[in-house]
Amino acid sequence: MTDPISSRLAFMEMDAAQRATLSGNGALIRSAIGKALDRFYARVRATPETARFFASPGHMRSAQTAQEGHWNHLATGQFDAQYHQSVRRIGATHARIGLEPRWYVGGYALVLEQLLHEAMARTPWWRRLLGTLRPRALAVLPAALVKAALLDMELSLSIYFEEEQASREAAMGTLGEALAALAGGDLTRQLADMPGAYASLEHNYNHTLARMREMLQAVAAGTRRINGTTGEIAQAADDLAQRTQANAASLEQTSAAVAQMDDRSRSTAQAAKSTVTRADQAIATVDGGRAVATQAVEAMHRVSESAKGIDAVIEGLDKIAFQTRVLAMNAAVEAGRAGEAGRGFAVVADLVSALAMRAEEEAGRAREQLTTTQAEVVTAVDAVMQVDDALANIASDVGEVHALLASMARDNGAQAIAIGEVSTAIGAMDQGTQQNAAMVEQTSAATRTLAQEARTLAELTCAFRTDAAAIPPRPNGTHPIFSGTTRDLPPAAVSALRVRS
After folding, report:
1. pTM over 0.70
2. In 3D, which of 39, 183, 182 has the Cα closest to residue 118?
3. What gap in Å lies between CA 30 and CA 63, rounded to an integer?
4. Intervals of CATH 1.10.490.10 along the chain
5. Where in the chain is the domain with CATH 1.10.287.950?
6. Residue 241 phi/psi, 5° resolution?
7. How far apart are CA 115 and CA 145, in angstroms?
8. CA–CA dist 182, 176 (Å, integer)
9. Are 10 and 77 spatial neighbours (Cβ–Cβ below 8 Å)?
């Protein structure tokens, strides 16, 4: 007997007498075990949780035959190495197929019950009668059967648990190696040849690992695309920022020039309004000059009419002077006739005749002067009429100029309003362009930050190996990110790791 079994037999006080009881009742046990196992495997077939462990009825019969051989050896009371190997084989098989202990213990309960029932049924009447007098004598065989069954069950369960522990340790070792490789960034190390009880763990881990590889490969590919895209965006944003700043400077200069144009346009509009006012004054002055010229023409006409009256007066005076000279001649004739008495009258007659002659001469000069005056008046009237015509032309021209100036004033006013609106719009555009320039600069800075984050993400994803062609780990089996130090990483990567941790 092996030491592990000896210690168990000693603890449960199963001595040589009880083992002899088993061997002495071996024929009874061997005859009863078949019926007990039939009952047990009938229950196994009727229970879905246990029936699933058998591929066919032949498989179940083979298991029952092996189980019957094991119980037959148990009935010999020989707990030797052969028995221990048989128990170990059974426990290992149960551990391998994943039979839960509850079904195993339940099976022992059914088999042991049937064995005890058969043992009691086949006990002779005189022994049962003797048992009433000596109860311990009647319980010898049941006690030996119970201890043997419990020993067998305990050994099987211990081996079951040992196998489970070995499987667990092997699984945990394999899983630990895989996790260590995963901690080192190796996503190619899959679980393989895991014990049957850990098949789901193997499948789930490998599936998770495959999903992680897919995700990291997608992240790496996306990071590369983001790197390229952010580089293009950053370059475009820089170019756009430069162009926007240049446009902002040009627009600022344009705004200043348009503001000057607006000031000049307003000044021109004001000057046009002043010119229109001056033109109105000039038209009023020309209208006044035409009125004066009309009055002068009328006055000249009146002078001409007056000159005609003066000419009649001069003609009358000329006639009076002629008649006076005739009268003086008559008076001189009469004085000559009177002789000495009429000498004084002759002197008066001569004086009157001389005065009449002078009056005729003055009347002639006055007529000449009047004729000259009339001619000058006619000339003056013609000149005044020409002046009036010229003033009329000037008034017409000034009116046209006034209309043009008024139109120019309206156009200048409209142009000033339009230029003012353009100036306001350009001012708003300048302000918007300045804001756009600031936003583009911010966008450029954000794009550079995004590019740096993408590079950091690329560095982080490069820490994982997702295929056999990936960069191998360092000689010590570590990677900078997973080696317990961050001195080899850029600051952004260290910050990202700290955030993630």
Report:
1. no
2. 39
3. 17
4. 3-183
5. 264-435
6. -65, -45
7. 8
8. 9
9. no
CA distance 407 to 110: 124
Task: Give the pLDDT confidence score for residue 138 in this predicted structure.
Answer: 53
What is the C-alpha to C-alpha distance for residues 299 and 383, in angstroms, rounded to an integer?
13
Question: Are 408 and 243 in contact, with CB atoms under 8 Å apart?
Answer: no
Torsion, CA 247, CA 250, CA 253, CA 258, rounded to 10: -80
Distance CA 408, CA 265 (A): 12
Record the tokens describing residue 118, joined without a space.
């058969």
For residue 3, the model assigns a pLDDT of 65
Helix (H/G/I), strand (E/B), else coil: 465? strand
Tens digits of residue pLDDT in 69-116: 888 888 888 888 888 888 888 888 887 777 888 887 888 888 888 888
State the amino acid at position 198 in one-letter form.
Y
Residue 102's φ and ψ, nearest 5 degrees, are -65, -40
Pairwise CA distance, residues 96 & 167, whole Å: 9
Span 243-300, pLDDT tens digits? 777 777 777 777 777 777 777 777 776 777 777 787 777 777 877 776 777 777 777 7
CATH of domain 3-183: 1.10.490.10
Per residue in 286-302, pLDDT (tens digit) is 777 767 777 777 777 77
High-pLDDT (> 70) share of the chain, %: 84
What distance in Å separates the CA atoms of residue 255 and residue 114, rounded to the nearest whole number? 111
Q: Give the Cα-Cα-Cα angle 51, 52, 53 (nearest 5 degrees).
A: 90
Phi, psi at 286, each rounded to 5°: -65, -40
User: Count of CB atoms within 10 A of residue 7's CB?
Assistant: 11
Domain topology for 264-435 = Helix Hairpins (1.10.287)
Closest CA to 246 of 436, 64, 480, 90: 436
- What does the alpha-carbon distance between residue 57 and residue 43 come to, in Å, rounded to a whole number? 14
